[in-house]
Amino acid sequence: MTRRLLATPLLALLLACASPALRAAPPSDAEVDRLMELTRVRSTLDGMWPQLEAMQQQIVAQVQAEQGVSPSAEEQAELDALLRRQTATMREAMSWERVQPIYREIYQQTFDAADVEAMIAFYESDAGQNLVAKTPLLMQNTMLATQKLLGPMIEQMQQDIQATAAQRGTPADGTP
């Protein structure tokens, strides 16, 4: 009798622990693909390339300016060709055909079928599509606000680096 009394709560505890795992079925490939379609994951990925290319050009120009380098037309053409090759390599490595299966797997590891169904229902709604449409503007505004917040801090950090370099008698760019 005592064994039976102990077994009942133990069985109930095991069932309670196991039941969420039993109910939490992973979403199907089709469900995840629909969610990614509704949230425009592919177009977001495709849209990042012009921004990355512009950032790459800015970094090169900044480094050249900081180092006082003024490449000849031929050297600049070689550098531009190198940047185009690097971008092409990155685009190939990050093509939708390569990242979609990875994204799908991540979604399936992160969300269960019920989560994905609920997100699909939301993103199919006008409010969900409005959110998707306005997310780039939201991100842009967030980045601008963050830059305003971080700007003075970055300037202070640069001044600190220059002051430290001056105390050591070395240029701030690290050249001997």
TrEMBL record:
It comes from the Bacteria. Residues 98-154 form the DUF2059 domain. PROSITE patterns: PROKAR_LIPOPROTEIN (PS51257). Residues 1-24 form the signal peptide. The keyword Ribonucleoprotein does not apply. Keywords: Signal. It holds the Pfam family DUF2059. This is DUF2059 domain-containing protein. It comes from Marilutibacter penaei.
